[in-house]
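README: folding subset

This subset contains proteins for which both the sequence and a predicted structure token string are available. Records are stored as plain text. Below is the entry for GH64 domain-containing protein (407 residues), shown exactly as it appears on disk.
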Amino acid sequence: MISRRTLLRASVLSVPVLGVGVERVVSAATPATLPVDVVNNSGSNTVYAYVTGQAIDNGNALMLLEADGRTPYYPPSPSSQTPVAVDCAIPLNASGNSPRTITIPHIAGGRIWFSIGSTLAFSVNPGPALVEPSVSNPSDPNINVLWDFCEFTYDASQLYANISFVDFVALPIGLTLATSSGTQTIAGLLGDGLNTICSALTAQAASDGSDWGKLIVTSNGRNIRALSPNQAMAGGTPLFSGYFDNYIDQVWSKYASSQLTIDTQYTWGTVTGQVVNGLLTFNGVGTFAKPATKDVFSCSSGPFTTGNDEMGNISARLAAAFNRTTLLIDSNQPDGEHVSDYYTAAQTNHYARIVHATATNGLGYAFPYDDVHPTGGTDLSGSVQSADPTRLTVTLGGPGGSGTPGA
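--- output ---
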């Protein structure tokens, strides 16, 4: 089951497997390289960028950009985990100064990483496979560093990039894509976005007694990130036990006596399902078992791993509806959805609700299938995409140079 976000990390962007509503644009091949202006508005003069991904024009080999911001480095496969041997920390210009321009080749599953105050530690496993910084491993050498990333794929047909809060919130990152036909902008969080989100999570925990406040990670008395529920639970931490149980029971009760209609927004068209013998059953396609709370937050465990491509498509729309808690409101998914109805249930993904409420224009991935939206409706995933890109600008520090707390 592949979301657009997963597709970015896995392969060259192509016709969407799940048909979320993005059409492949047929055009002349993009240039072999693309300039990327990296703007430091963080308030710190010690900021580093990193670029990682798979080099499409070199057999999808693992690559990083070296510290000069233009030379690809292809790590060899080591016999055991080994630190990256070449300096790949790209120093940015001082805060408020001109951008640092880097050059990217065609890259699949790309990330542009940022760290403030110190460099990041990357290593390589046999394969080679990149060992990236982790927010869920308490022994990770980067655990107390203020860092974040945005995602992109740049291939022969287009550039696609997005900001992401799927795993955590930390630094405010914005995107501006210049194309031959215009400009697209995703402003991201304001400079104080992390602290705003942490305050709202604390308030939600006080309101419902649940574990929202435990998503906040601090270091030396400052907030350095807010984990998504999925990441916070990744290490087996017993958070949000049974949180969605009551809501899921109500959904199962509703659709035991009525039908749920799902538009696959793809060649499979519209399908209907109903709960039969405890399973949400789509005749001729497959069944979907009652999920647990951790399955809803992850969108990738339990029943969300089930079936063929068509069932995976259905599961993606169910994942979005469960996280947004709209299944009791709307039995026509996702085409009957209204953004104003998202997250209105008492038991909902309040992390996603708070992130969207804080992000400029409400845009940015807050869970893996946050790009599911009604045909012709609002896509909240916070992405830019073009078949004729000329320059990408990535801004650290919030729109208008609003800065980064603690930088």
